[in-house]
Amino acid sequence: MEKKKRSPWSFMSNGYLILVLLFIYLPIAYVVVFSFNEGKSMTKFSGFSLRWYENMFSDRTMLDSIKYTVLVAVIATLFSTVMGTIAAIGLSKARPLVRTAILETNNLPVMNPDIVTAIGMMLLFIVAGVRLSLTTLILSHITFCTPYVILTIMPKLRQLDDNVAEAALDLGANPWQALVKVILPQIYPAIFSGALIAFSMSFDDFVISFFTAGVGINNISMYVYSMKRYNPSVNALSTLIVIVVTLILILVNVIPYIKDKKTLKEETRR
Known about the structure:
Elements: H1 8-34, H2 51-58, H3 60-92, H4 96-111, H5 114-127, H6 134-159, H7 162-170, H8 175-204, H9 207-212, H10 220-226, H11 233-269
Helix pairs in contact: 1-11, 2-11, 3-6, 3-8, 3-10, 4-6, 6-8, 7-8
């Protein structure tokens, strides 16, 4: 059999893909490598050392910024996920005109520039007489994370069969049981995806945090912005974040695979 000749376009597309991947991942690899650099240079690797990791764990200001970042991200993720899930389920049962109007309104914070949202939130707190603090920072993060959760869950809800929930009600389940045992298990992947998006949006935010955080409260983005000189310990912090994110992604992909394999084995035995 004659081998099929590969089109020049195939080589070009593969080369383009490789260049894109290198452009995305080389900077990350660069940061990881230089987090173990003994010297302060960002261009010359002078030797392997854990110096910047030691400095990171001894830097009280950096540790506080990590604490506030994780605390705000976790709380904002929990509240925005619950609120967004409830809102999405409610909208899926609303009238088409009402659903369309609310979804279009929900898109405004997503499409709106962060600087406009940040100034608006700050003015709202000032007019209401609320002092900028950790509480205002958390409320702001919940506000801009919730629309992303709704947008993530709504497509999954559109795929559901309404007759399933109605059948559960006909068989004696109350609305809460129908929600917990029928609807939520079917949209769980979308809820989890929405939670991940909310966490990453909150963890990475700078503009809104800058305008709504109180005095003495800095997240990682604000800490890096306020540095007078570049601190190589940031490389160590970035490396730890990359490791944590990678582990989460591995778990998210491996656990469902293990469950599916286990379920397949059980079905085969039957």
